[in-house]
């Protein structure tokens, strides 16, 4: 049974944004620039490191990091994402080909916690370890941090197969020219010789340790890790074992989304209340079902994208009851401590659960 009650609040909603241009970066990657109309500028204001979620068809939702800077949005009304082709990908491969200036896509306002608070009065050492398209959010972080904090520095370790596959090579070169003494970029190439033996080969644990010991200034205050799960997990473990004070992580792909085994519990095991867009909807669900799936059955407009615990688009706060997450690559410990969960990964632990998507 489903019922609806009015409560206050609002949630991120889809907005049609016109494509301003699509530009090729490498053989496998493009940038898509959207024109944000003045009335949506506040809604699409973002922090460097965040991502946009694009809806290409009702069931095709993808999250892509923003590579441009908040200052660009303020000045030009443009916001840009980096898209690397996934062979056979519904949007990255097929959808991108059909995009032209003027095409309109449905887009959710920026989301994500892969960021930091920048302060012009602060002097920090930032570091990033990225591979492939993992550079996308870090490009925005580097440009924004160095522009905002005139005394801070940034060291970037960037792994790629070959020079031709380096995304944003021109933008990185321009940043290096602008901040020659405050930006250090180390390109590591796995399938062709890099600038030195240390920069030639896979960005694995041994090479990371070597570069941290020999090429990276000591005392990095904040690290940003973005790329495939194996690199991010290895780098995080290594940095934490060396006492790194702050490590932010972002995964683009966390491996295949585990297909939850079909629920075997009864459909009315758990009473679920969903708060969304100022309304409460009530339904029931099996004790071994996923909260998002049950919630979508009564509120089809719910935000979600990856269903794999990576993008945080399905984030909500547990108001009553308890849930357990199968995996979480998106929420920071502070978020989890405050009661936020990824509903696509959440299984109820109590017979009554209320989740608030407006919180
Ligand atoms: S939909 Fe992406 S984390 Fe749940």
TrEMBL record:
<dbReference type="InterPro" id="IPR039261">
    <property type="entry name" value="FNR_nucleotide-bd"/>
</dbReference>
<dbReference type="InterPro" id="IPR012675">
    <property type="entry name" value="Beta-grasp_dom_sf"/>
</dbReference>
<dbReference type="InterPro" id="IPR017938">
    <property type="entry name" value="Riboflavin_synthase-like_b-brl"/>
</dbReference>
<dbReference type="InterPro" id="IPR001433">
    <property type="entry name" value="OxRdtase_FAD/NAD-bd"/>
</dbReference>
<feature type="domain" description="2Fe-2S ferredoxin-type">
    <location>
        <begin position="270"/>
        <end position="359"/>
    </location>
</feature>
<dbReference type="InterPro" id="IPR036010">
    <property type="entry name" value="2Fe-2S_ferredoxin-like_sf"/>
</dbReference>
<dbReference type="GO" id="GO:0051537">
    <property type="term" value="F:2 iron, 2 sulfur cluster binding"/>
</dbReference>
<keyword id="KW-0560">Oxidoreductase</keyword>
<keyword id="KW-0285">Flavoprotein</keyword>
<dbReference type="GO" id="GO:0046872">
    <property type="term" value="F:metal ion binding"/>
</dbReference>
<keyword id="KW-0274">FAD</keyword>
<dbReference type="GO" id="GO:0016491">
    <property type="term" value="F:oxidoreductase activity"/>
</dbReference>
<feature type="domain" description="FAD-binding FR-type">
    <location>
        <begin position="12"/>
        <end position="117"/>
    </location>
</feature>
<keyword id="KW-0001">2Fe-2S</keyword>
<dbReference type="GO" id="GO:0050660">
    <property type="term" value="F:flavin adenine dinucleotide binding"/>
</dbReference>
<dbReference type="InterPro" id="IPR050415">
    <property type="entry name" value="MRET"/>
</dbReference>
<dbReference type="Pfam" id="PF00970">
    <property type="entry name" value="FAD_binding_6"/>
</dbReference>
<dbReference type="Pfam" id="PF00175">
    <property type="entry name" value="NAD_binding_1"/>
</dbReference>
<keyword id="KW-0411">Iron-sulfur</keyword>
<dbReference type="InterPro" id="IPR017927">
    <property type="entry name" value="FAD-bd_FR_type"/>
</dbReference>
<keyword id="KW-0479">Metal-binding</keyword>
<keyword id="KW-0408">Iron</keyword>
<protein>
    <submittedName>
        <fullName>Ring-1,2-phenylacetyl-CoA epoxidase subunit PaaE</fullName>
    </submittedName>
</protein>
<dbReference type="InterPro" id="IPR006058">
    <property type="entry name" value="2Fe2S_fd_BS"/>
</dbReference>
<dbReference type="InterPro" id="IPR001041">
    <property type="entry name" value="2Fe-2S_ferredoxin-type"/>
</dbReference>
<dbReference type="Pfam" id="PF00111">
    <property type="entry name" value="Fer2"/>
</dbReference>
<dbReference type="InterPro" id="IPR008333">
    <property type="entry name" value="Cbr1-like_FAD-bd_dom"/>
</dbReference>
